[in-house]
Amino acid sequence: MNTPADALPLTCDVLVIGAGPAGSACANMLAREGLHVLLADQHAFPRDKVCGDGLIPDAHAALKRLGVLDEVMNHAQPAHHVGCIGPRGGRVDVPGTLAVLPRRILDDILCRAAVRAGAVLLPPARFEATIEENGLVVGARLKIGDAAHEIRAPWVVLATGAVPQAMLAAGLCDRRTPSGIALRGYVKNPAMVGRIKALEVVWHKKLRPGYGWIFPCTEGVFNIGVGIVHSHKVDKSGHGAMQDTNLRDVFKAFTEFYEPARQLMAGGEIVGEIKGAPLRCTLEGARYSKPGLLATGEAVGSTYSFTGEGIGKAMETGILAAEALLQGRRQQQAEAQVRSGYEAKLLALKPRFDLYERANRVNAHPWLADLLIWRAKKSERLLRRMSGVLNETSNPGHLVTLKGLTRLFTE
Ligand SMILES: Cc1cc2nc3c(=O)[nH]c(=O)nc-3n(C[C@H](O)[C@H](O)[C@H](O)COP(=O)(O)OP(=O)(O)OC[C@H]3O[C@@H](n4cnc5c(N)ncnc54)[C@H](O)[C@@H]3O)c2cc1C
Asked: What is the pTM of this model?
């Protein structure tokens, strides 16, 4: 599905850089409306992406809008609960529309769907810099193989994920350091099928300030990992140093104290490498646009803090970027109006991100998970409320206030 190297285009309507969930979603929505869209990624697809592979309800909604939900679910392992497990072993199962699909498959489906819609996927191309004229981005300089290649476009969309180099090159990154880091591996252990059916998330003082997870994939394979939030101390200039935590030690501790993790590892076979990657959360750490350019997805921090879920919101923000560009075209809006429309849409999502940021207290103080689980087991209403947050059917505004959060624990 790649363009031959001798026929590389020099112009397009929109150049989308990064073919993860955010970039592919954006390219898909633009191309289906007839725009000439070029989609560039540094890697050839299918490619792997370090992730927990969990698809929460917002991801299901975005996949449906992109027309690929059925294709994704044909490959994914469906699940019906997030199992929240506290330090004392208490557990509550929060109902939701969930699934697990390794990113190697998911991202390939999303990228192919963008190409089916009409986007042109370039051969592996690394974004190096924007081309700017009179303060306006008019294209980008890419490295394709050993050759430099320039593409001109009225709009560039940057969807390059949590690694900040591309955003730094574009002058949009305010904070180099990530919000958190996480590590995951795949373990094949068919004996555990049926024993781990939910997306299990575990809090414990040995994982502080973070969490562990086991998510069931298909064919007896499980995605197991640990994440820590606020992993870097940041100074006022946005520079930071890694806190004194070794994620591999945290992972080892998880596989020792959490009995299902211990059993999974003991009877299982590790498939591939155990790898870590950064997270950028809470729509913070970067600017969302500059003249002629929109940034989207995890590049602008579209991942939820607390549990590090971001596939759904990456697609959602990619779709918002496409909608802003389409609306601008239809209504012949000025460039600045397109950008302010897009930024307003992102900011409208902020209360949800703030809610997950506040919930981070549980990562820092895992005993709060015990309290919450204990309350949820006794209160149907609280469990419904937690499910409402997961399924995004409740208004997060009510929960973001301290009063609202306190009600979660006291109702
Ligand atoms: C260990 C871990 C576990 C996680 N678990 C979950 C989970 O279970 N569920 C969930 O929803 N989220 C999870 N996340 C978060 C999720 O991975 C991200 O939110 C999501 O990948 C963001 O999508 P994106 O499209 O913005 O960026 P990405 O998926 O990172 O895609 C960015 C793309 O841009 C390309 N790119 C980058 N720089 C350049 C460049 N200079 N030139 C060209 N191309 C470039 C990359 O190759 C990549 O393909 C997890 C993250 C980690 C690290």
From this structure: 0.94
